[in-house]
User: Fold these one by one.
Assistant:
Number 1:
Amino acid sequence: MAKRVLVLNGPNLNMLGTREPDIYGAQTLGDIAALCQSGGESLGLTVDFRQSNHEGELVTWIQEARGGADGIVINPAAYSHTSVAIHDALKAAGLPVVEVHLSNIHQREPFRHHSYVSAVAYGVICGFGAVGYSLALQALAEKLQ
Ligand code: CA2
């Protein structure tokens, strides 16, 4: 049976492709969703791709993933650097988590160097742009085999 992966995206990622292409690339979130759908299909994964600007909504989706998904790929965006709530929800979900960032957060401002999510992820991918999502799905497919 196909493994189910929840791909979550945090605040402002719905704005991708409209500004700062030098940092985040020119692709829209819709483009990345399509990449995940096709990449997931070829890996035998069912991908549920979502974005929210609201911390609580992301927490609720993570809670619902327990029982409804086999793994999580998450780009928590700015909440990476602030959210104990997302950290706690991911820990409680008990599912394998891969954290993705489009940009290399370690090359940027110091406040982006720490992520509350990294401690509950089994892997972190950053700096490869949209390709990072494909790499995350590939890693998760291996893990879920
Ligand atoms: O590099 C990443 O993927 C980030 O998670 C993106 C977040 C940022 O806060 C993290 O430090 C690193 C920001 C996403 C906002 O993206 C925009 C794109 C275009 C226009 C406005 C915002």
Number 2:
Amino acid sequence: MTHDAQPGASLYINGAPVEGRGPDLDVLYPFTGEVIARLREADVAQVAQATAAAAAAQPAWAALRPVERGRVLIRAAQIIRERAEELARLETLDTGKPIQETRVADWPSGADALEYFGGLAPTVTGQTIPLGSDFVYTIREALGVCAGIGAWNYPSQIACWKAAPALAMGNAMVFKPSEETPLGALKLAEILTEAGLPAGIFNVVQGRGAVGAALVSDPRVAKVSLTGSVATGQKVYAAAAAGMRHVTMELGGKSPLIVFDDASVEDAVGAAILANFYSSGQICSNGTRVFVQRGILPEFLKRLSERAAEVRIGDPLDEATQHGPIVSAAQANKIRAAIAKGQAEGARLVCGGAGDGAFVPPTVFADVADAMWIAREEIFGPVMSVLAFETEAEVLARANATPYGLAAGVFTRDLARGHRMAAGLQAGTTWINAYNLTPVEAPFGGVKMSGIGRENSAAAIDHYSQLKSVYVGMGAVDAPY
Ligand code: NAD
């Protein structure tokens, strides 16, 4: 296979590509296992160099008119759309996800974020608080240098979702992509430079967890935004606490998708497929516990296995492919171990199974009980657990009986019940008669162990800025002596 994935250099610091001085980092194409790029990690001095460049550049960026910052982000969104096909192909090489997905989901969603926050930047204002003749006004200020750390499932979207609100508010960013998928963030850095971003405002360092840890504890970093697992989130949150740094934590989940017997079974099956098998199941908000009301369970399982049997699995660069490989052999093996655990626990395999090589097919377990490992733990692969339920009160309690709280979905034609369930479900995002749609206009993030803070929407502005109160005294100072 010929490819053009090798970047000019591994890192991007102060507006220019820089070669890493740390350990080697080979990038594999998940479909073939072929090395498509040879990178090197940043060493500790280079992490410091990146944060120093960001700290030096940030005040002048923050001093621009917001409309000028916004213009750069909107221009970057335009460049992304002009290069859509090239970028989709690179994303497929980096992640193994089918080109029919990367064309519509990854960079397009990143471009939406750049456009949205570019437009929002000039609308952010303070408040005036009257106090008789004195008054207070507030200023929403940048935090300074923000660290972004990404997961491997949506590498370019994650980089854009973090960079767009951070830069819009006048911050600088040092971004560390996942070591599994390091290529998209480098493209974003180049595109932002081309769009007119000053040097030092968006930097990329590569590396495994240790490089992320060095970044999080750098004294110049004021905020850390992580997308990753709960276990990593706990470490990063603790490290950030030492320096009283702000955090956004976008972590894992074990989200419920609840199908009542008055729902359209065809739509609910479609949603369950989207909620479990898109991106080969490697999505944080996936509805991996599918609760189906007992009366429609046989019909639901029948249509689900019929539709799952139609999936086209194969070469991700083939436009017809709907289901690609898992990101790495290590992750594929973890998923296989989870499937074996489900079988050993007595869940009934309805379709799918271990697969081979890089591929795990869409897999459905029925007769799953709440206490089973597969119903409690995030698998992060194409493995759906179907659980039967009888009543609304019962399913709400069971859906909420998890330490996670990223997302939830309800399928019903009963309007009042849909809203009642949405109110009762402990989740950052709840869909009614839909699943896994995350437009930039809507806040996204978790409750409970699934995270802190929100990405997207105007809510993200609060997480990339701080409020200053300015008290203005208008009269004589009334001192006691
Ligand atoms: P991970 O936690 O293994 O790694 C995430 C990132 O953290 C990587 O870049 C990694 O190098 C870095 N890292 C690891 N240890 C670190 C440390 N001690 N300090 C600083 N950085 C460190 O996660 P992953 O396997 O790449 O991604 C899968 C997980 O991410 C799943 O749990 C999934 O649910 C979650 N996820 C959440 C969202 C969301 O928006 N809520 C989105 C995508 C993925």
